[in-house]
Structure formats: C-alpha cells, structure tokens
Design brief:
With 231 residues, the chain is α+β, with helices and mostly antiparallel strands. It contains ten helices and four strands, in the order βαβαββαααααααα. The structure holds glutathione.
Length: 231
C-alpha cells in the first residue's frame, strides 16, 4: 500500500511536459520515484493511470493520480510549501500566467510539433514562421517583466510561464539544428536570450535538459519526417 505522501512520476527523459513536473518537484525539494516510460509500446501502467489521454507525465501522490503537466505543476504548488511558489498570490496575475501558459502549449508547441513531423518543406517553413511569431510575442511579454527589473515571467523567481515555456527550449534547439536556422537570437529577442540562459542554469533545472543530439536521435527513431528531411 503506497504511503499517502509517496511520489512517483511516470515520465520520459525526452518529454518537455515531464520536465515541467520535475522542475516543480525540484523547486519544492520533493523526493520522488522516477518511472521511465518509453511509449513504445505504452506500458500497462500508463494505460491504467491515464486512460483518457494515454500520455506522460502522470504523477502518483500516494494513491492519487494526477495527469496533464500544467495541472500537475499547479497541484504541486498548491499541496507543498517546502519551496517558493510558482503561482502568483494575486488572482489576476495567476489568470494572466495561465493565459500565457495555455498560449505556449496551444500556439508555440503545436507549431513546434508540426515542424518536427512535417515532411513537406513549404508546409514546414510555414510552421517555422509560426514558431518565430510566437517567440516574438513571448519576447514582447518578457520585455514588460524586464522593464520592471524582473528576470523571469514569474517575477524574481521561476513561475508557471517560465516552467511551461522553458521546458520547450531543448526542443527549440532541435528545430534550430535540423533546420540550420537559429530562432532565438539576440537582435530579435534580447530578453529571451538572457532568460533562456538564466533558466537553463537555474539549480532546479540544470541536469534535466537532454542534449540536442540525443533528442534528434529520438526524433529520428520516432520517424518524425521534419527532423529527418530538414537540412
Ligand atoms: N497536454 C499534455 C501533453 C503530454 C504529451 O503530449 N506527452 C507525450 C510525450 S512528450 C506523450 O505522452 N505522447 C504519447 C501520445 O501522444 O500518444 C500535458 O501537458 O501533459
């Protein structure tokens, strides 16, 4: 019988969504058991714990199951106060952070996954442009924080938006590499460049970021055409 506080994370080293949960658990200094899911084929445990979506991450907290990365991140913040909060105390600020977190998943991530899977060069170019548009939008949003002297979307410390967006950076790097095109650049994104460095070197993030080459190998194994045919 699982103790009520025992934490297990069903995850995968390659998954930006899993990385979000790991960052949240690190910020709260929580110890957890990592169960690596390959998705190929999906394990019985995954199918049993997340029968609706059949996706990682899944967090097990004692006998409670929590699915969906942003929901898990918020759950971790609400249940534990053993580290800084990554949700604003003000309801309006929280709503704005949730808006941007949803924007990142619905716009930026969707364009990224299409760019990775799309074989047709013209279609892929359109997705790359969508990614670039979203990055400019995020730069504009971050500049507001920078003007107030804050280094993160969340303020002085990593918040929900930083976790949601930052976890995608390693896959942005994959897209940059396979397409031979830098997408986060000083001239267009001065704040994002500094933010990305700050994020990647944060003690709660460092060590969680997979190498670009390993992710490219993973994308090729998955037969993602946008990673294979891109130059
Ligand atoms: N909206 C989900 C997305 C999770 C997701 O797409 N996970 C991928 C791995 S990175 C997965 O499990 N994919 C399996 C599938 O699509 O069948 C979340 O935020 O947790």
């Amino acid at each position: 019988m699982a103790s009520s506080n025992h934490l297990k994370l069903l995850g995968g080293w390659f998954s930006p969504f899993v990385m979000r949960v790991k960052i949240a658990l690190n910020i709260k200094s929580l110890v957890y058991e990592n169960i690596e899911e390959t998705l190929n084929p999906k394990s019985q445990l995954l199918l049993q714990l997340n029968p609706m979506h059949k996706k990682i991450p899944v967090l097990l907290h004692g006998d409670k199951t929590i699915c969906e990365s942003r929901i898990i991140v918020e759950y971790v913040d609400e249940v534990w106060n053993s580290g800084p909060s990554f949700l604003h105390s003000d309801a309006y600020d929280r709503a704005i952070a949730r808006f941007w977190a949803a924007y990142i998943d619905d716009k930026l991530f969707v364009a990224m996954i299409h760019a990775l899977k799309e074989e047709d060069e013209e279609a892929r170019k359109a997705y790359l442009e969508e990614i670039e548009d979203s990055l400019v939008t995020m730069e504009d949003e971050l500049q507001k924080c920078c003007r107030e002297g804050k280094g993160y979307f969340g303020g002085e410390e990593i918040g929900l938006v930083d976790i949601t967006f930052g976890s995608l950076l390693c896959w942005v790097s994959v897209i940059e590499t396979v397409n031979g095109r830098k997408m986060i650049v000083e001239e267009k994104h001065p704040c994002l460049v500094k933010w990305a460095e700050r994020f990647e070197f944060d003690p709660n993030v460092k060590g969680l970021i997979p190498e670009t080459e390993k992710l490219i190998e993973f994308a090729l194994q998955m037969k993602w055409k946008g990673a294979a045919s891109a130059k």
